[in-house]
Each structure stands twice: as structure tokens, then as C-alpha cells.
Design a protein that fits this description.
globular; single chain; binds FE2/S2 (inorganic) cluster; 34% helix; alpha+beta; 5 helices
Length: 156
């Protein structure tokens, strides 16, 4: 039976009436037209659908919408402030950390989530975090360059 859930997305209060078991990714994309979280595996294995929930990176395809009632969600669209890209977005641009870009929102959200938790992550911590993110274009070399650059910037 449908229920109503209220939460914040990118600073805006949102209310959705739907099946509590629906994945957050589908609610964001289909009900709220927020298309940054991508459709990949749908099983929590590729990271393409990642969003921040209360600052922590989470795969939204296996997160039931019922779990986010009262929570604060940020998608890739919400990282930009007054037209100014987030420093992690700038780092991906500067290092060309993408090819087709399909994995990029999830990668960037993962890095922002990592820096929220650990402002000074070690290389093994960076690589462990990326292990759950698949780039179908195999752009890992430049993605890692971008992440290392973003981490270096965050230390300044
Ligand atoms: S689509 Fe969510 S982890 Fe792959
Ligand atoms: S840049 Fe194409 S999937 Fe990663």
C-alpha cells in the first residue's frame, strides 16, 4: 500500500506518495526527474546510482524510499553552488576523469562522501572506496588522478 514520505533533496523539501519498497533511485529519476543517479546494475554492485544520504555515499538502487523518510539527500545536481562546481567536480574536469561520463556522478558522489568521512584518506582507503564503482569505459587511470587531485585540494 502506498505511503507518503518526506525528505530533502538538494536543499528542497520533497514529498512522495508511493510503494515503500520502491528504490530511491527510481523515485528520484521517475517521480522527481532528478536524473543524476544513473541506472546501472540495479543490484548495488556498480555505484552508478550513488547519492549522499546525510553526507554518506549510498547506492540508491537498493535503498527503499521508506528508509529515507526525514533524511537529507544530495545528488550530483546538488553539489553545485550558485553555478560554481564542487572542487571534486572541478578535479574530474581538470584531469579528464571520464569518457562517456555515465559512471561519473556516482564516482564524484563517492569521493565527496569519502572526504566527508575522512578529509585525509590514504591511497588504500581511496582504492577501497572505488572498488564498488564500475567504469565501463575503463577510465580508471584518469579517475584516480582526479581523485588524488581532489584529495590534495581538500588538504589545503
Ligand atoms: S545501479 Fe545502483 S549500484 Fe549499480
Ligand atoms: S566514463 Fe564511461 S562508464 Fe565511466
Amino acid at each position: 500500500m502506498n505511503q507518503t514520505f518526506e525528505f530533502s533533496v538538494n536543499g528542497q523539501p520533497r514529498s512522495v506518495t508511493t510503494d515503500p519498497e520502491r528504490p530511491l533511485r527510481d523515485v528520484l529519476r521517475e517521480d522527481l526527474q532528478i536524473l543524476g543517479p544513473k541506472c546501472g546494475c540495479g543490484e548495488g554492485e556498480c555505484g552508478a546510482c550513488s547519492v549522499l544520504i546525510n553526507g554518506k555515499a549510498v547506492v540508491s538502487c537498493i535503498t527503499p524510499v521508506a528508509n529515507v523518510h526525514g533524511q537529507t539527500i544530495v545528488t550530483i545536481e546538488g553539489l553545485t553552488t550558485n553555478g560554481q562546481l564542487h572542487p571534486v567536480q572541478e578535479a574530474f574536469l581538470a584531469e579528464a576523469g571520464f569518457q562517456c561520463g555515465y559512471c561519473t556522478p556516482g564516482m564524484i558522489i563517492a569521493v565527496v562522501g569519502l572526504l566527508n568521512e575522512k578529509p585525509n584518506p590514504t591511497e588504500p582507503e581511496i582504492q577501497a572506496r572505488l572498488a564498488g564503482h564500475l567504469c565501463r569505459c575503463c577510465s580508471y587511470v584518469n579517475i584516480l588522478k582526479a581523485i588524488r587531485s581532489a584529495v590534495a585540494q581538500s588538504k589545503k
